[in-house]
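Structure ticket #2291
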Amino acid sequence: MTADWLALLDYGTFEVAEDGRRIPIRGYVVRSGEHVVLVDTGFPHAYYEDAEEAGRLDGLDAFGHLVSIGPQNRPQEQLALLGLASGDVTKLVLTHGDIDHVGGMHHFPDATLVMSSAERRAGPPRYYGDLRPLEWPTNTHSRDVDGDEEIAPGLTLLATPGHSPGHLSLLVELAETGTVILACDAISREHEVATGVNGGSSDDEAARRSANRLVELADERRALLVYGHDPEQSRTLRRAPETYR
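Resolution: structure written out below.
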């Protein structure tokens, strides 16, 4: 079985203070029959209104700043590029709890929330330093997963711990494109494959094992391996409203 299509969403661009890299903040949508699966939700909505003020209040300035972001980058507007509304989302997958991935999670109360049990057990979402202003949604259906699991035809969650305790990557099977592996932050950029270093990982050895697993799986399946925040690769990828089919 294959999914119908995959789309990459543009949630803005972040400049890393340490080295000046400008990295994409991204989400994904997978359409598979009756399922519309949104993967990750970007920053909290305050950033899409005034990123400078939100970053100052939250302490983001210590890590960098958002250089390209506006209302058009919110998940709702990105979905609209694909002819979808928030209410069309049937499942919301959170790959892990970093704030640039879960900031808009409370805006999809009708979707079934899917995340790993290990990530939920690790505590609330991670902002910056010790700041923890968000809690996981409670007013929605939820489904915690352990290990790998197919959640829709052609869409399988892959357990890739290391960057965070319960990080998830995704494998998407498409009729024309073939296999696409969304590494997310299990491999943020291609440089990590060569160095074996995952930036900000909670467990370096687990992160290396997960990255190696994805690279080997991509080789085995001849898959397109999409890194989570790689600026060079990002320039070669289609973005919504374009899709992979």
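Closing remark: The chain has eight helices and twelve strands.
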